[in-house]
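Bench notes, afternoon.
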Amino acid sequence: MKTTRTTLLALVLIALAFVAANGAFAANKKVTGDKMFNIALTAAFTGFDPLRTNDQASTYVNAQIYETLYRIGPAGDYIPLLAEELPEFSPDGKSATVKLRKGIKFHDGTPFNAQAVKYTFSLIKDPKFGSARASLAASIASMDVLDDYTIRFNLSYPDGVLLAKLAHTNSAIVSPSAQAKQDLMVKPVGTGPYKFVSSVSGSNVVLTRNDQYWGKLPVIKNVTMTVIQDESTAIARMETGEADFMPELSVPQIDRVKSIPGVKVGTSESARITYVMLRPNSWVNPLMGKKEFRVAIAKALDTKGYVESIMENYAAWSGSIIGPKVFGYTPQAESYGYKYDPAAAKAAIKENHWENEKIKFLVPSTPQYSKMGEFFQANLKAVGFNNVQIETIDWSAWLTESKLPNRFDLSLAGWANVTRDGTELLEPNWESKVSARSKIDNPEFDKLVYQGKTTTNKAERIKKLDAANKMILQEAWAVPVYNAVNIFAYNDAYANVTNDVSGTFYLCDFAIAQ
């Protein structure tokens, strides 16, 4: 076909228009706080009540709306937030008095005061309420409202983790009037720098700045968080300028994002541990109750190989469930578990005739876990486990179904340690009365966890936490994989964009680039 000058000119104009359209985002550095700030989430949030949700996506939303008594700073220090100062502990450590800031109101106009704090922790303690983290209030025997802005927590034991618990996002203070008349899961009310505007369930949520906020007003005024579970599609939104921030980015997508004009890849330190969960009770395959069977599985998993080949330099291999950024970590814990030993795994399988034993492997469908599931399934097949059945499941469904009995033998899990305290990792994930998924039901382990939290002596606490960590690893109840680095992507028209060590971001800290 003959190409005319007119046709050629038209093609050039189309090409220039395409370049202009795709480069407009990069060229337009002048943004204002009034511009809608668009966030792409690759996992769906489950709700907006901070007391009843514990998934990362929900925390992304709730951390903007609600506030806790304290916030953990970058150096692991405790910064008073709704509290005016750090708690005053009694000499015996069995009570803590907290003075609160004055003049703060919830978004619905309800005053923030000591009664609101008491109400919140009473809900967390109430088994009928269904708190996602009832352990946060386990040590609180009673509370005394000393005046409108002073509350005393009376403790059943000296709680070495109390301050960390008061800084946990799942102990954010809620409005008593709002909680009583509406479902905060769909219509949240907090004291934070952002207010709820609207939401489409499982799809998006819109927030706006709380212009009556008691603290420094955020620069960014309007925010939309949109659930885009396909990571490639979410990145495409970054390419076109339809998204300004992705709080989670998988390693294989880093180079693609780095090639986008006007978009940066950011990293920050993390206290998150990612691990393989081996369920010894409530099993699909009863052999999971045998330590020898679990050890064969543990020895088959090339965790270092996964970190080196898939995670590159964006994660640190871990041999310990308690990581270096978490209180209770000891260097010797890195050697407590089982090394990758495919020959030993093969021998155990052959000797015990386990070749065709069914292993149900429940894998969340998020970008992080999908590739990991395939990698470890291949490891298990390579040593002779011929009947490893992967079931890929939507993240929000995994959060519910992984708690059910007889649902899986193996699964993948991660824990973003908000408090950076080993008790708040071990207790909610493995302690018999609290654990919803691992279900190890071991009294000796429970005793170690209890002893580790019922003292303020740091050396004693580390000793007990280390012993509990050792038990998890030597019993092969879990196989640690890596300590993560937070990886995220953002429009470089913004500054101070980061995630804290728990993986949570706070929009009030973000700024406009100069």
